[in-house]
Write a structure and sequence with these properties.
Layout lengths: L3 E9 L5 E10 L4 E5 L6 H9 L6 E6 L2 E2 L10 E4 L11 H11 L4 H14 L15 H14 L4 E5 L7 H17 L3 E6 L2 H7 L2 E6 L2 E6 L1 H6 L4 H6 L6 E10 L2 E6 L2 E4 L5 H4 L6 E6 L4 E4 L8 E12 L4 E7 L2 E7 L10 E6 L5 E4 L8
Helix pairs in contact: 2-3, 2-4, 3-4
The structure holds adenosine-5'-triphosphate.
Adenosine-5'-triphosphate binds next to helix 1.
Length: 366
């Protein structure tokens, strides 16, 4: 067991781009940290530097407090699982799973016990005598995971391990992996660009963009209190709606105003927002806090007018695109309303579910 620290790790490749910029992160013993971010954010680079497959340009990696930068990958006691499972083709699933323990001369009965336990947890007990070429993608990825878990490394590094699987299988493996981590936690750094996977798995989430950390926190903290507009729009599907406007103080109350809407800011947000009275800012609201009613219907929420321009049935909900005077908004509704495409509707915003951000692009949370 180990804790893993990245100390201001920077990685530049030839060219102007900095793949990782003073990346600082501590993964606690037995913690499952998920690195999430768009393509090119630097996620794989961080993992490869931890594994010793890539050297940092500056900064250092420590395990249990000791620098490991000088150690070769095989001397770091880390296990890595990639998007494409890397199995020894001449060994069975059992042989692959047992490989590193055999190399360490672990007693046979101990190896058998560990392999059987992990294989059962990952649902591959029946496949132990099969060779990799006879496995499906999902089975091969389970075998690769088993090989990583059986040896109980100091730290587990996973790079999009489920990305090549179809959606139901991905969800199943994700559940099994989370359950296996719950029973027997290893210090784990997991890379994905899939926000659902990130939210489902992480003890803590690290949101990366262009080599920099945008936010670190529990999944709930990051989802409910996004640090800036980038994080707010990256996590959540469909993404948060944004409306630019001005914050006004009138008779002791704060209002958010723009030409087509004037809404009261809920009192709990006053203390933090009062200092921005008179300033331009951006309001954020998630699609599930936006509902629609027909014109004239009574409603206590803040209302602006728009036209329904698209609706999409998603099985468990409807996604509705609404055109307002100053841009489109998305509403996520549990039931279809009576309105049809082209209708003028009232768009209702739940004023208890508002976020405010600085007006600059990707502005920070206020
Ligand atoms: P993805 O989700 O697409 O895998 P990522 O977040 O894992 O992206 P990285 O693979 O870490 O991103 O890449 C970060 C940046 O570093 C990218 O702009 C990439 O082009 C660049 N990069 C990565 N490896 C190399 C390399 N060997 N040579 C040059 N540039 C590289």
């Amino acid at each position: 067991m180990a804790h893993l620290d990245f100390d201001a790790v920077t990685k530049t490749f030839p060219g102007p781009l900095t793949a990782l910029d003073r990346f600082a992160l501590s993964v606690a013993d037995r913690e499952l940290v998920v690195l999430v971010g768009p393509s090119g954010a630097g996620k794989t680079t961080a993992l490869r530097i931890a594994a010793g497959l890539e050297r940092a340009t500056s900064g250092s990696i420590r395990m249990d407090g000791r620098p490991i930068d000088h150690l070769r990958p095989k001397d770091r006691d880390l296990a890595m699982v990639f998007q494409q499972p890397a199995l020894y083709p001449h060994l069975t699933v059992r042989g692959n799973a047992a490989f590193s323990l055999s190399m360490r001369r672990t007693p046979r009965d101990e190896i058998d016990r560990r392999v059987a336990k992990i294989a059962a947890a990952l649902g591959i007990a029946e496949l132990l005598d099969r060779y990799p070429e006879t496995l499906s993608g999902g089975q091969a990825q389970r075998a690769a995971l088993a090989r990583a878990l059986v040896r109980r490394p100091n730290c587990l590094l996973l790079d999009e391990p489920f990305a090549s699987l179809d959606a139901p299988l991905r969800a199943e493996l994700r559940r099994e992996f989370r359950a296996s981590h719950g029973r027997d936690p290893l210090t784990t750094l997991f890379v994905t660009h899939d926000q659902d996977e990130a939210l489902a798995l992480a003890d803590r989430l690290v949101v990366l963009r262009a080599g920099r950390i945008e936010q670190v926190g529990t999944t709930q903290q990051v989802y409910e209190l996004p640090a800036n507009r980038f994080v707010a729009s990256f996590l959540g599907s469909p993404p948060m709606n944004f409306l630019a406007g001005k914050l006004m103080l009138q008779e002791g109350r704060l209002w958010f105003e723009r030409p087509d809407i004037r809404l009261k800011v809920a009192p709990p947000m006053h203390a933090s927002l009062l200092q921005y009275a008179g300033r331009e800012l951006v309001l954020g609201i998630r699609p599930d806090a936006v509902t629609i009613t027909e014109p004239g219907a009574a409603n206590d929420d803040a209302i602006l007018e728009g036209t329904l321009i698209e609706q999409e049935f998603q099985g468990d909900r409807w996604l509705v695109r609404l055109r307002t005077k100053s841009g489109d908004m998305i509403s996520s509704l549990l039931r279809a309303g009576r309105s049809s495409i082209g209708d003028t509707v009232q768009i209702c915003l739940d004023t208890h579910q508002l976020h405010f951000f600085a007006a600059q692009e990707q502005g920070r949370r206020l």
